[in-house]
Amino acid sequence: MAATRRKPAKRKSLARKSGRPPVEVARIDHIVLRVRDVPCAIKFYRQVLGCAVAHRQPKLGLVHLRAGASMIDLITLDGPLGRMGGAAPLKKGRRNLDHFALRVERFDEPALRRHLARFGIDMGQPARRYGAEGEGLSVYFSDPEGNVIELKGPAART
Which of 45, 71, 127, 144 is the most buried (most CB within 10 A)? Predict the structure, then answer.
């Protein structure tokens, strides 16, 4: 008996009639960083950015840090999730990502500079940059694994 071929099902359009996609992104939920030294990374994010450990999944080599309404997840390079990402970051030509931006409530340059200096971090010069809420001051620096962090202040009022 010959198999009958079914016609491919017609796909429904994902767009609403208004032309807007059916997904509305509200904020960054989490980012995942592959790190060599999880305890060092936890210490950095706790002390420098005030993040707290929210949850641990040791079988996956995963630690979730609370970063305001979002999460920064740290995975070990040798754990099940980390191995899926291939070679370690910071090798020539390899990076985890370009950078990630964390929205801060106040951008108090002198206070930020003093705070980061306590950890040996030179934050450089703040500049006005465009972000989710519009243009506002921000500054870049790196964590111990070489991941670039942008602290993004509120949008300037016009």
Answer: 45
For residue 116, the 8-state DSSP code is H
- For the chain, 158 residues long, give each residue's pLDDT as a single digit of tens: 444 444 444 444 434 455 665 556 677 878 888 888 999 999 999 999 999 999 998 998 889 999 988 889 898 888 888 777 777 765 555 666 768 889 888 889 998 998 999 899 988 899 999 787 888 898 989 888 888 888 888 888 86
Structure tokens at 62: 């995963």
* CA gap 120, 86 in Å, rounded: 30
Beta carbons within 10 angstroms of residue 137's beta carbon: 19
29: nearest Cα among 67, 57, 78: 67
| Sequential DSSP letters for 42-94 | HHHHHHHH--EEEEEEGGGTEEEEEETTEEEEEEETTSHHHHHT-SPTTSTT-
Closest CA to 103 of 26, 27, 23, 25: 27
Q: How many CB atoms lie within 10 A of CB 36?
A: 16
How many degrees, rounded to 5, is the angle at CA 123 between CA 119 and CA 129?
145
